[in-house]
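quick one, 347 residues, struct below
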Amino acid sequence: MIAGIATLAFASAHNSTNALLARLLMGASSAFSFLGCLKLVQEWFPISRFSTLAGMTNTAAMLGAACGAPLAVLVHAFGWRATMAWTGGGEVILGLLVFLIVRDQPRITVREALPPVRSTPPSPALSLHAMIALLRNGTVWINALYATCISLIFVAFGGLWGSGYIQKAYALDAVAAAGTSSILFLGGIAGSLFYGWYSDHLHSRKRPMVQAGIGGLLTISLLLYITGIPLPLFKTGLFLAGFFSSANIISYAVALDLYPAFSGLSIGFLSTCYYAGNATSQPLVGFLLEHHAGSTRGMDALTLADYRFALSSLVLFMAVALVCSIRIRETFPASCSESKMKRASGA
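---
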């Protein structure tokens, strides 16, 4: 509800201060959405299905992100204020639907199998102890760094700077460039579904993370440094880059594996690092663009070489993600693996 109201406020803002405050509220309120969905997944479904269902949730998020091209058309036709107002209204309606329909936990009935035993809420002292233990756990930091670095391409490239790069590289107009850039999120849709299922199927977190790190690093390097790539092939590469980068969804399963009794705390810390990286990546690329251009002549004066230099930071981040995936330890719950082995042997 707050996200919707803030979006409506942004649509009607007439000075930078009001716009800034509205954007701040939009981001702060939206940050809870994914956490709430993952908590619902934990409460309603078996732990062995967490990664798969988290991937499905992320797919829904990617569907929204992939709307860059349709939104660009709406902005061009009706203006950004009307487009944002419609978006805010949709968010308010969604908030009402969540309030009326969604429930925190399944209702317990006589005919239903008993759900997993849930502990009582921990005391503040126990929660503080868990926070300290979490911050001292090296795997937590490696996992957060992986999730952040492998997914920065969605925000830095797909969310802002990619359209400018595509316009320079292929002489497309703004709407066509936005449509091409949105293919990155289509890859993310497919990858979120795949990697969530793939991790549960393999009974492994580490192996899919390593494989995605290798694929993501190779793909983004080829897209940036190989000149003269035909546009259809470039679009295929963008799809693959989004596909591999969506393996960040596995990190949320790792966060749950590490602290199942404090899943909100563990996943919340991961999301904090993730959003901090996202917030930093866009101005970082912008700073590198200005530094390489060596002037303040404006966006139109930037060259393809300027974009390649600045976007090379994404290649570096992808390399960091690969190193993190190699360094992280396997966290897939042993109980889930044993249960599957017993079912297989019984069959």
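Residues 138-170 form the longest helix (33 residues).
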